[in-house]
Amino acid sequence: EVQLLESGGDLVQPGGSLRLSCAASGFTFNDYSMTWVRQAPGKGLEWVSAIIGSGTTFYADSVKGRFTISRDNSKTTLYLQMNGLRAEDTAVYYCAKAPVWATHHGVDVWGQGTTVIVSS
Amino acid sequence: NFMLTQPHSVSESPGKPVTISCTRSSGSIASNYVQWYQQRPGSAPTTVVYEDNQRPSGVPDRFSGSIDTTSNSASLTISGLKTEDEADYYCQSYDSNNHGVFGGGTKLTVL
Fold first, then answer.
1. N or C: where does chain A have the smaller number of CB atoms within 10 Å of the terminal CB?
2. Which of A44, A60, A94 lies closest to B44 in CB terms?
3. Which of residues 57-86 of A touch B (CB under 8 A)?
4. Rounded mean pLDDT, B44-55
5. Which residue of B97, B99, B102 is in closest CB contact with A45?
6. Average pLDDT, chain A
């Protein structure tokens, strides 16, 4: 069974940093691209970032230059390093798996999410 | 960049079919795959359709996706509505730089 388990969410002050992790199991991790999606309180879904198996990365304009997506295929874990956090980054962050190696085919499995709150 | 526009809400009775639309504002709807995600209250999203019309394993065939280049839109059709289908539904696609774009979501009420 494919499983994705996010962790690392916390309360952080504006300007602070946080690293989210997503532990994957049940599939050959390096064969699939992975994506982060977030949802602010009471709002819709927002695409954040994606990474293919070889490491090529993609970012939403709202996070480019502040967030870094990475993966450790040996640990089957996806990461999101978030720097320069702003109040508008407050959201539940979901990791999700693509159905194929490429990123533009959507996602077929989601994690349960981890909550990031940016507030003083 | 383009936008994906969905109706804010739709409602239908159990057993009936319902269709949710997703209209792309510019560029062809066929130029990038369209996905549909279901999110029940208080839960994480799940995928009901990816790559325009593919269902992940475990998703019943009551859920079907399609695209229409004439109207430049995608549709999610749910046949034989059940009360458990009541949820928010989001369409999603990609721009030419492989950046994801979400629709604003549609609240489905099963009366």
1. N
2. A94
3. 58-61
4. 97
5. B102
6. 96
